[in-house]
Amino acid sequence: MSKVLIVEDEIAISDLIKIELESKGYKCDVANDGEIGADYIEKNNYDLLLLDIMLPNVDGYELLEYNKQTKQIPTIFITAKSQTKDKIKGLNEGADDYIIKPFEMGELIARIEAVLRRYNKVNETKKIGNIEINISARTVKKSGREVLLTPKEFDLLVLLVENKNFALYRETIFEKVWGTELEFETRTLDLHIQRLRKKLDLKDKIVTVYKIGYMLKI
């Protein structure tokens, strides 16, 4: 599980990022000023640093320099400083990426995953209760015992886990897992959902959302 430190003085933004990342399986800490952020860096190990530039007490550039001299955590600047010269400065100072506010959460997630892949820090294991999913090995264990899934069942499970507590349209699921549009009146998806529920005892967790599709409710 990748661990992320969010250093952002706008509490509404830091809370939103934390909620979104934790829904994707990340573990997050939040600091709302640069000095506290430095304390977190000193005392903990992180896979990624999300860093605002304009911070109280210690600004983002100073904190990035402190990070470079100590832990060297991969860093993405998230800032309202939108001029090209600011972006160039941030990247030249050593940031791995630079995102300008306001931003789409989907773009932030994609950029985070790209930086983590660059440093071989991508989440390889996802956990839901007593279920453990190894993404690279494509294996699933329940209470420590392996459960055999078909390739499509595995892909469907990962999609549901990555979007837990969000209702997914049937059409979206079919396109993501089968790579094609949903066929009229097909029961393929329903059968795969039934098999996942049975194999992993998720009858009460994978719920049907009326007129939409399915959701993994945690």
Tell the overall outline.
elongated
Separate helix tally: 8
On the 0 to 100 scale, the average pLDDT is: 90
As a percent range, the share of strand residues is 15-25%
Major β-sheet, in short? 5 strands, parallel
Oligomeric nature of the chains: single chain
Element order: H for helix, E for strand = EHEHEHEHEHEEEEHEHHEE
Task: Please name the fourth-level CATH homologous superfamily of the largest domain.
Answer: Response regulator
CATH class of the largest domain: Alpha Beta
Distance between the termini: 18 Å
* Count of spatially separate domains: 2
**Beta strand count:** 12
Biggest β-sheet: strands ordered side by side in the sheet: 2-1-3-4-5
Evaluate the radius of gyration: 20 Å
Low-pLDDT windows of residues = none
Could you say what the CATH topology of the largest domain is called? Answer: Rossmann fold
User: Architecture of the largest domain, CATH level 2?
Assistant: 3-Layer(aba) Sandwich
- How would you classify the helix and strand content by structural class? alpha/beta
Q: What level of helicity do the residues show?
A: 40-55%
